[in-house]
Structure formats: C-alpha cells, structure tokens
C-alpha cells in the first residue's frame, strides 16, 4: 500500500462524501449563495470542491507511481476503477437532480465499462491498452462539464451562455469518439480473443 495507491483510495473515499453534500437536502441551512440572478446552494459548492479535489488526484497518483517506480498491480486495478466510480457517481447524481440528461450519463458510463472490458481482454493477451490522446481529452472535457453543472454554470450564468449544457454535450460526443477510437486501434485484440 504505497503512496500512489493511498491517494487513489482517498479518491474513492471522497465519492460518498461528495454524494452526501450533493444529494442531501440542506435547504434549511445554510442560506444559498446569491449573486444577482445566480444562486448556488452551499452544499453543492462543497460537493463541487470535493469533486475537483478528487479529480485532481487522478494525475497526481499516476505521476508519483511512474516517477518513483511505484507502479503496482493494485494501482493498475484501483486507478481506473476510482475514475469510473467518481464520474459514474456524480453523473447519476446529476441525473437525479435534473441537471443532466439520462442518455448522456448512460453513454458516458457505458463507454467507460466498454473500454474497461477491452483492457481486460488485453491483459488476458499479456498486452496493455495505453491511454490515448482522445481518452485524455475526454477526461478533461468531462471534468470541466461536470464542474460547470455542479456550479450552476458559474461564471457563464452572468452572460446567459449555457456553457454547462454545451460542455456536457461535447463530453458525450468526445466520449463516444474516444471509445470508438480505442476499439478501432485495438481491434486485433478482439480478433485474437475470438480465435
């Protein structure tokens, strides 16, 4: 249980705390934040901060593991699992709150499970499916989109531009494209496994 794995476990432990602040009704206290026409409940602000903190640890644990030669099989299992749990939990919560269309959540979560399955097939063949450029772009766009949804489109709410809606649509489209990209580039794995 080295430092990168502890950071990954901390990310997993932050998920239920984030969901508590996101889904429990705190309308009685404290008062929501008001700024002109903008309104945001304090508990949703706390949930957004926890989400950003958890999302930021993704790069940190991987960097430490590679730099200090601390890559372990446990880390290879936990790191992608933590990412999928975090994104899935927050997207399902946003659907519950009426801030995200269910089809978008289903598309994003399905892609994550499909790519995980592909990686499992690769492991059976003794190969590794490395993160692609589109996979990294997908992650960044998802984090930006989810953050904007959690923050009620702050600061773009003041100029009446629905950047949160645009960003989550972009996240869904890039997620689909990156998933297709993974399968096209690794189609020989499926052919080998069926042989």
UniProtKB/TrEMBL annotation:
Where on the tree of life does the source sit, at the highest rank? Bacteria
Give the UniProt subcellular location, in the record's own words. Answer: Cell membrane
Which UniProt keywords are present, listed alphabetically?
Answer: Cell membrane, Lipid biosynthesis, Lipid metabolism, Membrane, Phospholipid biosynthesis, Phospholipid metabolism, Transferase, Transmembrane, Transmembrane helix
Query: InterPro entries recorded for this chain?
Result: CDP-alcohol_PTase-I, CDP-OH_P_trans, CDP-OH_PTrfase_TM_dom, CDP_ALCOHOL_P_TRANSF_CS, Phosphatidylglycerol_P_synth
> Which Pfam families would you find in this protein's record?
CDP-OH_P_transf (PF01066)
What function does this protein fulfil?
A: This protein catalyzes the committed step to the synthesis of the acidic phospholipids.
Q: What is this protein called?
A: CDP-diacylglycerol--glycerol-3-phosphate 3-phosphatidyltransferase
In terms of NCBIfam families, this protein maps to:
pgsA (TIGR00560)
Q: Which pathway does the database say it acts in?
A: Phospholipid metabolism; phosphatidylglycerol biosynthesis; phosphatidylglycerol from CDP-diacylglycerol: step 1/2; Lipid metabolism
Organism the protein comes from: Paenibacillus etheri
Q: Which family does it belong to?
A: Belongs to the CDP-alcohol phosphatidyltransferase class-I family.
The record's Gene Ontology cellular component field reads: plasma membrane
Q: What is its EC number?
A: 2.7.8.5
**Where is it mostly found?**
membrane
């Amino acid at each position: 249980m080295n430092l990168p794995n502890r950071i990954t476990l901390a990310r997993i432990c932050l998920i239920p705390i984030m969901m508590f602040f996101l889904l429990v009704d705190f309308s009685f206290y404290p008062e929501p934040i008001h700024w002109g026409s903008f309104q945001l409940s304090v508990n949703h602000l706390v949930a957004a901060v926890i989400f950003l903190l958890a999302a930021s640890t993704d790069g940190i644990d991987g960097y430490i593991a590679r730099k200090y030669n601390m890559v372990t099989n446990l880390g290879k299992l936990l790191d992608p699992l933590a990412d999928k749990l975090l994104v899935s939990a927050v997207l399902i919560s946003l659907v519950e709150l009426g801030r995200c269309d269910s089809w978008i959540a289903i598309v994003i979560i399905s892609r994550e499970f499909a790519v995980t399955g592909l990686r499992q097939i690769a492991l059976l063949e003794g190969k590794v499916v490395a993160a692609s450029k589109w996979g990294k772009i997908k992650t960044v766009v998802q984090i930006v989109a989810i953050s904007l949804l959690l923050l009620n489109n702050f600061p773009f709410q003041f100029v009446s531009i629905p950047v949160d809606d645009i960003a989550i649509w972009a996240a869904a489209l890039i997620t689909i494209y990156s998933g297709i990209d993974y399968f096209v580039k690794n189609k020989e794995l499926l052919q080998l496994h069926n042989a």
